[in-house]
């Protein structure tokens, strides 16, 4: 009952993004910013899931945080797994209160090395730097005690401000090709709005496309 009441309270505080006359915003980055801002009071809206599709059709997921976003794309940093380096196409998924979700698909581009270093040394806490360094140097972990021992040893070796940046720590900017907004507004009713870059084609030939703003088209999808 409490969660149901909380959801209704949140929904009362947010704005509808599709009305009878159409979408209230024709620019997906501006709409994303609205949802992001509205979610601040209920969660950390930066939390997201990174998805990469591999050549064999399998996929891998990694939870992380979006550090910034703009018309250019969505910026994030991570301790990169080898599988991610083999694939430039990825997706980001944000799941927020009020049964809202945003999925962004696009091409990832590596950030300049100096920008990655600046983030690692200035934005990441010391303990997290130590943990990342240990993960990169451990091929396998026997147990929790083994990991704690390695962390303690690394702390004795590197004082604050002296932890080397792990070789697999990287930063990326995902350039969006399509952005889908999903909102569940009732027991059986969902609203889905998908934006595509003007050079992108819809998945089905007969799907209607409408002109958006700032180089985007959009389509209203069936639930």
Task: Describe the 3D structure.
With 223 residues, this protein is of the alpha+beta class. The protein has a domain at 25-118 and 167-221: Roll (Pnp Oxidase, Chain A). The chain has helices at residues 2-13, 28-39, 82-85, 113-123, 126-137, 144-157; strands at residues 18-19, 22-23, 47-53, 59-70, 73-79, 89-96, 100-110, 169-184, 190-197, 210-211, 216-221. The strands form two sheets. It has a six-stranded antiparallel beta barrel with strand order 3-4-5-8-7-6. The chain has a two-stranded antiparallel ribbon with strand order 1-2. The two termini are 26 Å apart.
Keywords:
223 residues, alpha+beta, Pnp Oxidase, Chain A, disordered N terminus, 11 strands
Return Rg in Å.
Answer: 20 Å
Strand % is 35-45%
Q: Architecture of the domain at 25-118 and 167-221, CATH level 2?
A: Roll
Distance between the termini: 26 Å
Largest beta sheet: strand ordering: 3-4-5-8-7-6
Given as residue ranges, the uncertain stretches (5+ residues, pLDDT < 50) are 1-15
Order of helices and strands: HEEHEEEHEEHHHEEEE
Work out the helix count. 6
CATH topology of the domain at 25-118 and 167-221: Pnp Oxidase, Chain A
Question: What is the tally of beta strands?
Answer: 11
CATH superfamily of the domain at 25-118 and 167-221: Electron Transport, Fmn-binding Protein, Chain A
Question: Could you give a short account of the major beta sheet?
Answer: 6 strands, antiparallel, barrel
Structural class: alpha+beta
Average pLDDT, rounded to a whole number, is 84
What share of the residues lie within helices?
Answer: 25-40%
| CATH class assignment of the domain at 25-118 and 167-221 | Mainly Beta
